[in-house]
Amino acid sequence: MSSRTAPGPRERLLDAAQKLTYSHGVGVGVDTLLKAANVARRSLYEHFDGKDGLIAEVLRRSTAEDEARYEETMRAAGDDPRERLLAIFDKLGEIIAEPDFRGCRYLAADLALADPDHPGHAVTRDYRKRVHRLIEHELVALGHRKPARAAEQLLLLIDGTLAAGATRPGTDPAASARELAEHILDAAG
């Protein structure tokens, strides 16, 4: 017989904040977060030193999940680096088509967090560096003559795809970005 332990206040805060900051942005109120997590205000300060710490931890948690999705998407595409990279854009098309899609959590956070020293910015910068490395690794395997530059270009296409997917419903930015990505990959040799 197994007994299941209910999540504690820290996990409930993280779960609630991860959902609410995606659907309503990082400007969601503290009272709304506390109510959704069913925790006292004291828990927010004990576990995260306040809302800024909670936002940074939610971003950190999300980046780990999203980085794993990139790796899973590329792995599922097989061994060919070109196909692995193009699979990213196919996956973005699927993500954008989901009914609860609200855009890129990291772009939204960076735009909404006015304080340049907010700890969330360090998390999003680190995440983009890690995704850049994943993409650059594939470009090196492809034999691209400028893998770092091409990785920057592909990241720009990813950001643009996610932004357009949120702001221009009914369009297919992932398909357009995939076509542009093919041109970047064709410049490999």
UniProtKB/TrEMBL annotation:
Gene3D superfamilies documented for this protein: Tetracycline Repressor, domain 2
DNA-binding region ranges: 29-48
GO terms of molecular function: DNA binding
Presence of keyword Protease: no
Entry superkingdom: Bacteria
Keyword Nuclease in annotation: no
Regions crossing the membrane: none
Segments forming domain HTH tetR-type: 7-66
InterPro entries: Homeodomain-like_sf, HTH_TetR, Tet_transcr_reg_TetR-rel_C_sf
Keywords carried by this UniProt record: DNA-binding, Transcription, Transcription regulation
One Pfam family named in its UniProt record: TetR_N
Name of the featured protein: AcrR family transcriptional regulator
Originating species: Nonomuraea soli
Lineage, uppermost ranks: Bacteria, Bacillati, Actinomycetota, Actinomycetes, Streptosporangiales
